[in-house]
Amino acid sequence: MDDGKSTLIGRLLHDSKNIYEDHLASLATDSRNAGRDKIDFAMLTDGLKSEREQGITIDVAYRHFSTPKRRFIIADTPGHEQYTRNMVSGASTANLAIILIDARNGVLTQSRRHGFIASLLGIPHLVVAINKMDLVDYSEDVFKSISDEYREFSAKLPTRDVIFIPMSAFYGDNVVMRSDKMPWYDGPPLLSHLESVHIASDQNLIDFRLPVQYVLRPNQDFRGFAGTVASGVVRVGNEVVALPSGRISRVQRIIAAGEDVEHAFPPQSVTLCLDDEIDISRGDMITHPANVPWLAGDIEALIIWMDTRPLQINRQYIIKHTTRTVRGRISEIKYKIDPNTLHRQDADSLQLNEIGRINAQLMRPILCDEYANNRQTGSFIIIDPQTNFTAGAGMVIDRSHKYERATPQYLSSQKSAASNLTRHTGHVSIEERERLFGHSPVTVWLTGLSGSGKSTLAYAVEKKLTEKGHACFVLDGDNVRHGLNRDLGFSAEDRFENIRRVAEIAKLMNESGLIVIASFISPLKTDRANAREIIGQGRFVEVFVDASVELCEQRDPKGLYARARKGEIPDFTGISAPYDPPESPAVRIDSGKSTVAQGVKSILAHLRQMRVLS
Q1: pTM of the model
Q2: Domain harbouring 337, CATH code
Q3: CA–CA separation, 252 and 125 (whole Å)
Q4: Would residue 522 show up in a list of annotated catalytic residues for this protein?
Q5: Of residues 84 and 465, which shows the higher confidence score?
């Protein structure tokens, strides 16, 4: 802030003869009204009232100008840390970034921050303009000192094309014309560099990508797919594939600006007509068959957080990628980056203007590329669904491999008892349900004596999971016997059938994406083994709520032990019926020593260790 960005742009426009006379006269009047002795060129781009009052840039302002050699669009972006998100907006489509440094102040935090963000955004060319040299007597030593410090920092960045230019934007030194006040500088002035910097190779002309924005169907004889060419080149007669359907056709016509053309390239807005009638809609992508993007539902990305409301893990956001909009969750923050040192730091959230590497789970896959190879299809924005505010900007690094898991056993090879029954499979995959709910579905099977505290613990786990945004449900032994299994008694055969039915219900609930917490005495290990087989080894989590018969009898919340001692309840577990304690449970909780909160903590810790929860 106050390093002279807007002044530099105004001087650049003025000295290159790109300001109309009436505009210049109006600018002179505005400068006098603001108490300036000379024309304040910063007012050319700082048009907001609040900007002129404070003398700073707040919003992004775009100015167009041209020289005989090249046309330019300049984005004047704010320098204050508070408006870093505005800087990101302006830099997102740039070929070249100018980092302005006040020669009096040297390299500041924001100087590093903006250089780092520019490199993250893939801007291939960087100019470090050391401004206000007139205020340090045009000192070569000051220029070299600042250049050396920033050169050491920029060596850690992927951007390699970095040059340093000393200047005074206020007086026009080394802006458009070479300055005779700095004879020790033998490089070009800023405008000469802007006119000659090589940008032809900045565009990706290899990977053809056309995100479909709209389907044009004015009549029965015309069907065209409109969009902006994101990258690559397409020609009439090229074979193309529509994604994600995978249908292949050939380009029949290319229409740009109402006229047929033989080829199209970025960033042209075009309409493609194909030889075949293919079902393509907004959000689909047309590419070459031998060069297709990733179809990714889980991605790793670097994001810049742009909302005053911090990022929340597993909260649902809207992801806008090219022309496709999907819902998704940030499932993990791997680390955040200190822009001053470029060091990685642990983080469980991201605040305004912070930068971090994350894993995201999307409810529908997107067609994307690595951002380093394709800025258009490798970038996305994150939208808060409640406020519709652009909360973050992201750059795809890779498809995430964290959530690859062994497929649970569903006993699909087992034959049904009735040969005329067929197992049906829906159109929503397990992976899609996991993205929707933000967890893997499992059954937490709590076993223990009556009075051991299973139900109390089960409902406490349910409450904690629900607070964290997970979909779950408790299957309680008493509740099941009131309804589904009220036809069953307590004989060995009926106990087996009771557990079998519960396991089948838990399996169906797992397949719907829910976490099931089953609270059943289930005294026999053979019954529990059968439940594990039905639900699946990978989804069955056995929790032994361990309490002695004496402790349970002291508690006796339902008075059952007293009735069993009197012989009123036959085959009562622990008194007149055996209990087989688990030999190697996933979690063992001593309910005589552990509190309910401690028990909940142990179960959730095990679920996180299994990577059921993020």
Answers
A1: 0.61
A2: 2.40.30.10
A3: 38
A4: yes
A5: 465
**Overall number of domains in the chain:** 4
In this model, does residue 419 exceed pLDDT 60? no
Say if 226 falls within a structural domain. Answer: yes
CATH code, domain carrying 510: 3.40.50.300
Give tens-digit pLDDT for 335-381.
999 877 788 999 999 998 889 999 998 888 899 999 988 999 999 99
Q: List, in order, residues 6 or more apart from 152 with CB less than 8 Å away.
A: none
Which helix (H) or strand (E) is 234 found in, with range? strand 234-235
Cα–Cα distance measured from residue 38 to residue 6, given in angstroms and rounded to the nearest whole number: 15
Tell me the CA distances in angstroms from 238 to 289, 362, 399, one per residue in order: 10, 32, 29
Q: What integer best gives the mean pLDDT of the chain?
A: 86
Claim to verify: residue 304 and residue 265 sit in the same structural domain: no
Least Cα distance to 117 among 313, 282, 305 occurs for 305
Taking only Cα atoms into account, the Rg of the chain, rounded to an integer number of angstroms, comes to 33
- What's the CA gap between 8 and 370, in Å, rounded? 35
Options 249, 452, 522, 594, the catalytic residue: 522
Q: How far are the Cα atoms of 88, 294, 608 from residue 93, in angstroms, in the given order?
A: 9, 22, 40
* φ/ψ of residue 542, rounded to 5: -90, 125
According to DSSP, the residues that pair with 161 across neighbouring strands are: 125
Range of the domain at 262: 209-287
Question: What's the pLDDT score for residue 414?
Answer: 33
544 & 602 share domain: yes
pLDDT for 445? 96
CA nearest to 341, candidates 107, 120, 119, 153: 153
